[in-house]
Amino acid sequence: MSLDLDDIRAAVTAGTITEAQAAGVVALADARAKGRAVIGDMDEPFELFHGFNEVFIVLGLGVLFAGWTGILAFVLTLQMKALAFAVLGFVGMAAVALLARYFTLKRRMNGPSSALAAIFAFCSAQIGFGIGLGLSGEVFLTSGLAAASGSLGMLIYWIAFRVPFALAVVALGALGSSFCFIAWSGDILSSPREFFLLSSSGLYGWATIGVGILALITAMYFDLSDPHRVTRRATNAFWLHIVAAPTIVNTIAASLVFNVNWFSLSLLVLFMVLLTLFAIVIDRRSFLIAASGYIAALCYSIAPGVFFVGSFVLGSCLILLGAQWEVIRGGLMHRLPDFRGKDRLPPWRAAENLWQTTANG
Q1: pTM of the entire structure?
Q2: Where are the transmembrane segments (predicted)?
Q3: For 226, which of 70, 72, 233, 274 could close a Cys bridge (C-beta 3.0–4.6 Å)?
Q4: Average pLDDT, 10 consecutive residues per value, the chain (361 residues)
Q5: How far is CA 64 from CA 31, 68, 69, 95, 161, in A?
Q6: Dihedral of CA 144/147/151/154: which sign?
Q7: Which residues contact residue 169 at a Cβ distance below 8 angstroms, ignoring those fewer than 6 apart?
Q8: What 8-state DSSP symbol labels residue 350?
C-alpha cells in the first residue's frame, strides 16, 4: 500500500492531518527519494558527514574531549579517585546527553552524533572503572567493568538517541569486557592470535565468534526490516556488520590455518567461497573486505614464490566485483531457489537488464 499526493490532500480536507503535517510528510518523502537517487538503487548507503560544518563541530568535540581527559588525569592523583571517577562519569554522560539532544535530535547531524556517542561510551566506562578501582584495582577486573559499563551505557544511549554507530560500540564493549573477564579468571593470553583461535584450551576465540554471531543476527534483523535501505535500521545493520565481519571471518579463518596443511587450506577455500556468496546475497561488502586479507595469505601459502601474481588476481577480482556487483548479484539471486526471507532482502534486477544498464551508462 502506498500514498500519493491526492491521498495526502484528502487527509488534510478530512481534518485527519494539518497542512503543516502534510508538508512535513511530503518533504520527508522527497528527501528519502533524493537520498536513494544519490547513492543509486543498488548501492550500499554510507555517510559519515553531511557537510564540512559537521567536521568542524567534531573537531571542537575532540578538543573538548582532550580537555576532559586532562581533568581525569588530575583526578587520578587524588585520594578519592575511585569515587571522583564515577561521579565525573555521570557528569560527563549528562553533558553529552544535553549536547546530543541538540546535535542528534534537533539538528540530525551524523558526524557529531557519532562523536558524542563515543564520548558517552567513554564517560559511562568511567563509572565501571571507578567501581573497579574501589573494589580492588586489579587491572583485568577494572578494565572488564569499564568495558561492560561502557557497553551498557551505549545501549542506553542508542535507545534514547538511535545513533546507529552506538550499536557497534555496544558490540565492541561486550567483546572487550569478555576478554577482560576471561583474563581475570586466570586464562592469560600467550599470543595475540588466541583472540581468534577456537580451541578447547582457551575461551577468547569462542567469545569473539559469539559476539560476531550475535552482531550478525541483530544486523540481519535490521536489514530484513528495511530491504530498500532508506531508514536508520539499514545504518544500524551497517555498523553491526562492520563488527560481525572481522570477528567471524578472523576467528574461523585463523582456526582453519592454525595447522597449515592441504586439508585446512581446502576448508579455507570453501569457507571463502561460501562467505563471498553470503555477502553477495545479503548485499553487504564488509565480509569481503574482512576476507580479502586471508585470501591474500592463502595465495602466499599455496605459492609464496609467485605471491605477487595471486595479489594481482585478487585485486582484479575485487575491482571486477565492485564494478559489476549488481550484475553478479542479480544473476545469483535469480538462480537461487526461493527460501524464507528472500523477498525481504535488498531488491535485485535481472542480470541481462543490468548489463544493458551498465553499457548504456
Answers
A1: 0.80
A2: 55-76, 82-103, 115-133, 139-158, 165-184, 204-224, 236-256, 262-282, 294-323
A3: 233
A4: 67 75 69 50 67 90 91 79 86 94 91 94 94 88 95 96 95 95 86 76 88 96 88 91 90 79 81 89 86 72 69 86 87 87 82 49 47
A5: 33, 6, 9, 12, 21
A6: positive
A7: 117, 118, 121, 150, 151, 154
A8: -
